[in-house]
Amino acid sequence: MTSSKETKIIDKNIRDIHKNLVKYTKGSLRENNLTMPRFLVLWYITKHQPVNMSFLHDKMHMASSTLTVIVDKLVDNELVKRYRNPEDRRIVLLELTEKGDKKLCKLLDIRQNFLEKALVDLDDSEKEELIRLLGTVLENLEELLKAGENYNE
């Protein structure tokens, strides 16, 4: 199936928006002594805490050894705390520390302020429409994946 001209333009615009947000985020991460993988670990932990290493491995698709190095560094920097599950001592859980939570919030604020500057030419109704349209696209993508839509040539 050949994609329409509009679909190709939308795809390119989404990729370019993502590329620019990642580029900016990497710069602010560097200034805050973090890498993108460490930032993502902080983000996944805060969204689902407490989490175990298996959860992070499933979400990030990284080798366990790589993930361990990342978490060790976050623990050393006092951004994440590691502790045994009191109900099952074999399980090690991870949570953000107060310092880690503040750092993540600061970085998200920096990124969202950058995005807000890019939205400056949109009035409130245009922003609402953009939110609605992007939400619809996201819901449709999630439904397609849930329904088992796979790559087909």
Mean pLDDT: 92
> Radius of gyration over alpha carbons?
19 Å
Q: Which percent band covers the strand fraction?
A: 5-15%
Give the spatial strand order of the biggest sheet. Answer: 1-3-2
In words, what does this structure look like?
The chain is mainly α and 153 residues long. The chain contains 6 helices and 3 strands; from the N terminus they run H-H-E-H-H-E-E-H-H. It has helices at 5-31, 36-48, 53-60, 64-76, 98-118, 124-146; strands spanning 51-52, 80-85, 88-96. Strand 2 (80-85) and strand 3 (88-96) form a beta hairpin. Helix 1 (5-31) packs across helix 5 and helix 2 packs across helix 4 (64-76).
Please sum up the structure shown:
The chain is built from 6 helices and 3 strands.
Keywords:
single chain; 153 residues; mainly alpha; 3-stranded antiparallel beta sheet; 6 helices
Give the helices and strands, then pairings:
Layout: H1 5-31, H2 36-48, E1 51-52, H3 53-60, H4 64-76, E2 80-85, E3 88-96, H5 98-118, H6 124-146
Antiparallel strand pairs: 1-3, 2-3
Helix pairs in contact: 1-5, 2-4
